[in-house]
């Protein structure tokens, strides 16, 4: 399995993606894994890797990227600033990233959310 990070642009801001995918060159179904209120932390990286371990190309977008890299606010405060219109753009950009990948079967993309991510999955 491979894990790595990439950045994509959303609304003039760089959004980090944590990515995990099985080894090989085959086109895989994909899953957007949505963070809990504490962001893309070790737990979310582990859940993304576990999803990839089940045979999916998995990506977790940092939905707090608009706060900037130096933000020290806690998860609940950051969650309170997150707006649905921006979340929809961010998840849409992650889906576009997946569909553009040569390792993804773009007709098979799902979503999985933890804590606040469950609401985001429902929203999408």
Give the % helix: 25-40%
Total helices: the number is: 4
Low-confidence stretches: none
Strand-residue fraction? Answer: 25-35%
Query: What is the N-to-C order of secondary-structure elements (H for helix, E for strand)?
Result: EEEHEHHEH
Cα radius of gyration in angstroms: 14 Å
User: Major β-sheet, in short?
Assistant: 5 strands, mixed
Strand order of the largest sheet: 1-2-4-3-5
Q: How would you sum up the global shape?
A: globular
Task: Find the structural class using helix and strand composition.
Answer: alpha/beta
Q: End-to-end span in angstroms?
A: 28 Å
How many β strands by DSSP? 5
Commentary on this structure:
The protein is of the alpha/beta class and 124 residues long. Helix content is 35%, strand content 32%. It is built from 4 helices and 5 strands; from the N terminus they run E-E-E-H-E-H-H-E-H. The chain has helices at 42-53, 75-81, 84-100, 116-123; strands at 2-10, 13-21, 28-34, 57-61, 104-113. The longest helix is centred in the C-terminal third of the chain and has 17 residues, at 84-100. It is globular. The model has no long low-confidence stretch (mean pLDDT 96).
């Amino acid at each position: 399995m491979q894990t790595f990070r990439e950045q994509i642009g959303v609304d003039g801001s760089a959004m980090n993606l944590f990515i995990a995918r099985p080894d090989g060159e085959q086109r895989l179904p994909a899953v957007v894994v949505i963070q809990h209120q504490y962001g893309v932390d070790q737990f979310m990286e582990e859940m993304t890797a576990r999803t990839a371990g089940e045979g999916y190309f998995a990506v977790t977008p940092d939905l707090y990227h608009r706060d900037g890299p130096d933000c020290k606010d806690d998860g609940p405060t950051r969650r309170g600033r997150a707006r649905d219109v921006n979340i929809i753009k961010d998840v849409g950009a992650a889906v576009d990233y997946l569909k553009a990948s040569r390792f993804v079967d773009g007709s098979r993309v799902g979503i999985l959310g933890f804590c606040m991510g469950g609401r985001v999955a429902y929203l999408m």
